Amino acid sequence: MATIIDGKALAQKIRSNLKIECDELKSRGILPKLAVILVGNDSASKIYVRNKNRACEEVGIEFEEYILNSDITQDELINLINSLNSKKDVHGILLQSPIPNHLDINQAFRTIAPDKDVDGFNPLNVGKLTLGQDTFVSCTPYGVIKMFEEYNIDLSGKNLTIIGRSNIVGKPLIQCCLNKNATVTICHSKTKDLKEHTKNADIVICAIGKAKFITEDMIKEGAVIIDVGINRTEEGKLVGDVDFQNVEKKASYITPVPGGVGPMTITMLMNNVIKAAKQLNM
Ligand code: NAD
To answer: Ligand 1 — pocket residues by CB below 6 A?
Structure first.
């Protein structure tokens, strides 16, 4: 039976430490602040923003929300980002995705000042990650790396397969795991014979968004399984991409959904806001 990687408990531990750091900044007159831009009415996005607000409250970070109509122009969005870039009391800026199709999200991410880019989506920060330089690492991959560290799972020389190549999870994970000396394979919807790549892996990270996609026959005995996926079943239950019940019997470590990668993602956002507040006040 696998050891369950408890993302909820680890997230709590990191948040307690962040609260201490936040209090310390406040005692120096620095009030760490996150500004979140929400465009339109997407109900899932509203929930994500609400959860970020709660996490900020827990750590003591100020939270400012900018809710924009879905018919906002690109210029209006860019002007808002520029005004937040120049506000001295704002340390982190986050544009909640998705945004409506008529808007250019890449230009928006490019506009967020790199030193306030707490999601790590500005191309400058993506480039720094690629070069192994200190930067804001996007929150989900960063959370996954923290889990490996907490559970002393050494990536060096391990065969590690990532499934999913999104800009926010799969691609930054490649660099994060390479930086830890893993031998990284990245798979996606066009991969032929996915099982060949998962069976050969000491560590599998799955981020595709398909319930019970990873089954026990796809992994090797004793593999470490990280499940990034979030799916809702017809009964309304939250599940990951991994057939947890069966895979758990064969893996050495496994993350649950909920209570695995999810709580770590928001926690690493809090971490990045505190880091930004410190760096902007050095
Ligand atoms: P996405 O939805 O942008 O893309 C999905 C990826 O999966 C693509 O790269 C695609 O090539 C790959 N894929 C799809 N079907 C496949 C198949 N049959 N075989 C191999 N690869 C396949 O990805 P995303 O935004 O990274 O989200 C992935 C999942 O992770 C979603 O369930 C999302 O909700 C979840 N997620 C969770 C967190 C968290 O904090 N836990 C954060 C971000 C995303």
So the answer is: 140, 163-166, 168-170, 187-189, 191, 194, 207-209, 228-231, 261-262, 265
29-115 and 139-261: same fold?
A: yes
Residue-level length of the chain: 282
CATH number 3.30.420.40 given to 29-115: no
Sign of CA dihedral 204, 207, 208, 212: positive
| Tens digit of each residue's pLDDT (9 = 90 or more) over 124-140 | 999 999 999 999 999 99
279 Cα to the center of ligand 1, angstroms? 32
Question: What are the sequence ranges of the domains in the chain?
Answer: 29-115, 139-261
The whole-angstrom separation of Cα 115 and Cα 85 is 9
Mean pLDDT of the chain: 97
The CATH class given to the 139-261 domain equals: alpha beta
| Distance (Å) from CA 57 to ligand 1 centroid | 29
Query: Residue 262: how many CB atoms within 10 A of its CB?
Result: 23
pLDDT at res. 104: 98
Pocket test for ligand 1, best of 139, 169, 218 (most atoms within 8 A of CB): 169
Average pLDDT over residues 209-228: 98
Q: Are 259 and 6 in contact (CB under 8 A)?
A: yes
Q: Which residue, judged by its Cα, is nearest atom 39 of ligand 1?
A: 262
Q: pTM for the full model?
A: 0.97
pLDDT of residue 75: 98
- The atom of ligand 1 lying closest to the CA of 240 is 32
